[in-house]
């Protein structure tokens, strides 16, 4: 093997996610932190009360940045499963699956972009990209899956959910405006808040994961 090939191999090894024993322990630690953060929810004034923001995606995004997107996906999965065991489900698991998809749509793209170039600029670009994807996918999942499932699970027409939105935001008059004026802003705020927290703390905690 040539010196150049060895150099490339070593460089590739540095950015490959290592899911050894230490990484699995770190994934478990981040998942535990995520499930704790899920307990602290903050309602937003422009959305119905069942839309509450939490910071549980912070450990997921940290996992993506530190160990690669696959590690972040595992943190997200364990977080959802633990929450399912602890609190149960009112949507036959559909809500949990939707939350998993939406969470991954934010963190995985950010992790992929940051993995290619570990700089602050790359992190910002990754988090901005992830936020935009989370908004788009979140609107689709909520409009076509989550909200109809919630309505069916609680035995209420979809108009009743729309009415809950109208009560806090007069611009919400239909399912489409519910998605536009409640779901989209909710995911935007969540993406910005989570990104800001990770941007402020990541370099300080990164030595734990032995990364740059």
Outline the fold blueprint:
Blueprint: H1 3-15, H2 21-37, E1 42-43, E2 52-53, H3 57-67, H4 69-87, H5 94-116, H6 120-153, H7 158-168, H8 175-205
Antiparallel strand pairs: 1-2
Helix pairs in contact: 2-3, 2-4, 3-4, 3-5, 3-8, 4-5, 5-6, 6-8
Function: Probably a riboflavin-binding protein that interacts with the energy-coupling factor (ECF) ABC-transporter complex.
Membrane topology: Multi-pass membrane protein
Protein name: Riboflavin transporter
Oligomer: single chain
- Second-tier CATH architecture: Orthogonal Bundle
Count structural domains.
Answer: 1
Largest sheet: 2 strands, antiparallel
Name the helix and strand elements from N-terminus to C-terminus, one letter apiece. Answer: HHEEHHHHHH
Weakly predicted, low-confidence segments: 1-17
Strand order of the largest sheet: 1-2
Q: In which range does the helix fraction lie?
A: over 70%
Shape: globular
| SS-based class | mainly alpha
CATH top level assignment:
Mainly Alpha
Computed over alpha carbons, the radius of gyration is 19 Å
Question: How would you describe this protein?
Answer:
This protein has 212 residues and is mainly alpha-helical. It has a single domain (21-206), classed as Arp2/3 complex 21 kDa subunit ARPC3 (Orthogonal Bundle), CATH 1.10.1760.20. Helix content is 75%, strand content 2%. A two-stranded antiparallel sheet has the order 1-2. The longest helix has 34 residues, at 120-153.
């Amino acid at each position: 093997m040539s010196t150049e090939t060895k150099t490339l191999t070593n460089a590739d090894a540095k950015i490959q996610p290592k899911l050894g024993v230490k990484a699995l322990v770190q994934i478990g630690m981040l998942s535990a932190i995520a499930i704790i953060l899920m307990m602290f929810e903050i309602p937003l004034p422009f959305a119905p009360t069942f839309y509450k923001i939490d910071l549980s995606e912070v450990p997921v995004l940290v996992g993506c940045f530190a160990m690669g997107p696959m590690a972040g996906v595992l943190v997200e999965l364990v977080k959802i499963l633990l929450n399912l065991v602890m609190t149960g489900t009112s949507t036959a698991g559909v809500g949990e699956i939707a939350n998993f998809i939406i969470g991954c749509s934010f963190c995985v793209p950010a992790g992929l972009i940051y993995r290619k170039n570990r700089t602050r600029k790359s992190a910002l670009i990754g988090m901005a990209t992830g936020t935009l994807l989370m908004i788009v996918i979140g609107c689709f999942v909520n409009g076509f899956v989550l909200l109809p499932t919630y309505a069916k699970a609680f035995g209420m027409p979809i108009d009743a959910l729309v009415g809950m939105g109208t009560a806090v935001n007069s611009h919400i008059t239909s399912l489409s405006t519910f998605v536009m004026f409640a779901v989209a802003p909710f995911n935007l705020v969540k993406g910005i808040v989570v990104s800001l927290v990770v941007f402020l703390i990541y370099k300080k905690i990164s030595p734990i994961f032995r990364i740059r």
